[in-house]
Amino acid sequence: MEIILSILMMLYGLMTGGGGEPNLSLDHILTTTTAAGQHMIQSDNPGEATEEKSNLFVKKDPLPDAPPIKGIYVTSHTTGVSRMDTLLKLLDETELNSMVIDIKDDYGYITYPTDNQQLLEYGTTQKNIRDIKALMARLEKHKVFPIARIVVFKDSVLAEKHPELSFINKDGTIWQNGRKESFVNPYRKEVWDYNIAVAKEAAKLGFKEIQFDYVRFPEGFEHKADNLKFHSIEESRVDVIAGFVKYAREQLEPLGVRVSVDIFGYAASVPAAEGIGQDFVKISKHVDVISPMVYPSHYSTGWFDQKDPDKAPYATIKGSMVDTHKKLDPLGSHKPIIRPWIQDFTASWLGKGRYIKYGKAEVQAQIDALRDTGIEEYLLWNAGNKYTEGVDY
Description:
By secondary structure, the chain is α/β, with parallel strands linked by helices. The protein has helices at residues 2-14, 26-30, 46-54, 83-93, 117-122, 132-141, 156-161, 189-205, 221-224, 237-252, 280-285, 313-328, 360-372; strands at 70-74, 98-104, 145-151, 209-213, 258-264, 289-293, 337-338, 341-343, 378-381. A nine-stranded parallel sheet has the order 7-6-5-4-3-2-1-9-8. Helix 13 links the parallel strand 8 and strand 9. Helix 8 (189-205) packs parallel to helix 10 and helix 12 packs parallel to helix 13 (360-372). It is globular, with a radius of gyration of 20 Å. Residues 71-387 form the DUF4015 domain. This is DUF4015 domain-containing protein. Pfam families: DUF4015.
């Protein structure tokens, strides 16, 4: 297994297409794991344990009449060019009905102009979406279910603007990962409130769901923390991340929007990851929708008994969903909607003989595997926003 994880780490480093978490490896997920993370809902946090036992928290879908969501990822840049016409036509003519649009992107930029002073204090705006209200009206005209993607703790813009909210090297510089990206500190309440302020504005603009991505500490953080300067408290990283998700749901609940979180696809198949602070079960408990990123290209030799998982899209997706159900079934009424991210791109970086060209048959195989495991909702990822036609969506 360790060999497999090492290979996964290299694959993620090579991944340039995005999809929420391109640079996190499974060995980081498995580092310093907790025995309670596999299939149980009890917690080391006394507050969570009491809440679980007393059942004070009742999960209610804020949009119970929403149809099954079948969506595509759309960059903020795409919303203003001719490709948007093509994508709207695709949704008009198929069962696809949703767009996940970057509102706070992978660099940390807010992707549209705003005069919201709380957002401007911490964030920096761009004009990728020149007229956000016109965009929302266009989506409504085409009956598109709009989802706002907000990248949370990977935020180079905020780290540069407010270094005290980030992680500082011994020489005083802002810490960066191997891709020259900076993270902000999940221990800082200001960071929580800033991202939730972005989410609140998106909800008021008409987005029906807020999708949080990069809800974690930096990859391999447990190996770096002792050499970095940052504010921290006694609470564990897992509880801090779960605490943010719970707080976000509570803050957004009055606005009647769903809250969803993107999470590493392997999280369904491995114990909790204390290093980066992600626990699949704890996060899932406090969201309306969980979106594991289960791209076949992101699994390496041996997963689900496949030599080359990218070449076996049906078997890989089916295996990942079996694990997901096993992980979340114990949550009972707290189990969220499972809406995976699936692959509509060709992973040529895997190397000759390790990948296949993805088209109609491969996308269909993933959807069929979802349906065969009781999953009706999904999201398609393609970094260039080019999606396959002719699929039985």
